[in-house]
Amino acid sequence: MPIDNLQSTTTDPPSGIHINSLSHEFGRNESRVLALDNITLDIAEGEFVSLVGASGCGKTTLLDIMSGLLAPQSGTVLLGDTEPLAGRQDTARMFARDALLPWLTAAQNIGFSLATRNVIKEHREEMIMQLLREVQLEEFADAYPAQLSQGMRQRVALARTFSLKSKFVLLDEPFGALDAMTKINLQDQLVALWEGTSSTTVVLVTHDLGEAVALSDRIFVLSSRPGKIIANIPISLPRPRNVKELQSLPKYHELVASLWEKLSQ
Ligand SMILES: Nc1ncnc2c1ncn2[C@@H]1O[C@H](COP(=O)(O)OP(=O)(O)OP(=O)(O)O)[C@@H](O)[C@H]1O
Ligand SMILES: [Mg+2]
Q1: Does the CB atom of residue 56 touch ligand 1 within 6 A?
Q2: Domain-embedded: residue 7
Q3: Which residue's CA lies nearest to atom 11 of ligand 1?
Q4: Which residue has its alpha carbon closest to ligand 1 atom 28?
Q5: What pairs with residue 94 in β-bridges?
Q6: Is 205 part of a structural domain of the chain?
Q7: Most exposed residue of 49, 63, 174, 231, measured as fewest CB within 10 angstroms of its CB?
Q8: Nearest-angstrom CA–CA distance, 165 and 35
């Protein structure tokens, strides 16, 4: 058989995230709300993408569908080669407000997640300390969530999200409630955690256009409701990235400005 034919018969199983003609409506009859309208997008394995768009344009709905919390009404969604399913072991989700268990310490919160993913006990301690080091919270391993600031709790939540070593990480405004300086520190920690993985695909929902540019390989812009993809913008800033240093790069500011323009069209 000629080489060309051999190549065309080998197909790798799909990786990354593939959404085709997805629409989603809430309510019935007069109270019907079309939240997502014919969304088609492909995200490569290991890619970091952001979704930006006006409030109410369907970003959280889209993440809910990718997490398997909502079933797609029409169209198809694939994470890797399978449909989303709530509780899938290869998917991790993080929200704007941390969801730490208040009766467990920072270390125990991370340990709890590791236990749910069947990481054996002997390995947990070392992994927990390594993760807490990465988010600069080693000294607070034994502190309870109530003894931590909001930014520190988000850092624990971030460490916990990445402790799961999930193939797909879905983040919904994870730094929305933080001040500018804390935010930049956490963005740097997020980018470092992700750059430390080889094939974790990240989808970040954010209202912060600077954050989207600083972190992403690509940004999808959604129209206001019903959400449609109106732009797909590659971000060609070099990696590894340092969010603080990017602030002084003209190219970074140009990208943020062009994103503003797309959103205000
Ligand atoms: N469970 C629900 N029942 C009815 N309507 C809903 C439900 N969830 C969302 N919606 C509607 O769907 C639309 C999209 O909501 P969604 O939460 O996805 O927006 P969003 O882009 O995440 O907004 P924000 O940026 O404010 O978080 C909104 O009009 C909202 O009212
Ligand atoms: Mg939302």
Answers
A1: yes
A2: no
A3: 35
A4: 56
A5: 171
A6: yes
A7: 231
A8: 31
Q: Which ligand is nearest to the CA of 27?
A: 1
Q: Is 57 in the pocket of ligand 1 (CB under 6 A)?
A: yes
Distance between CA atoms of 157 and 171, rounded to whole angstroms? 11
Output the domain CATH number for residue 175: 3.40.50.300
Instruction: List pLDDT tens digits, range 131-187.
Output: 999 888 999 999 999 999 988 998 999 999 888 888 999 999 998 878 888 889 899
Q: Is the CB of 31 under 6 A from ligand 1?
A: no
Find the 199 Cα to ligand 1 centroid distance in Å.
30
Put simply, whether the predicted model's pTM sits higher than 0.85 gets the answer: yes
Total number of domains in the chain: 2
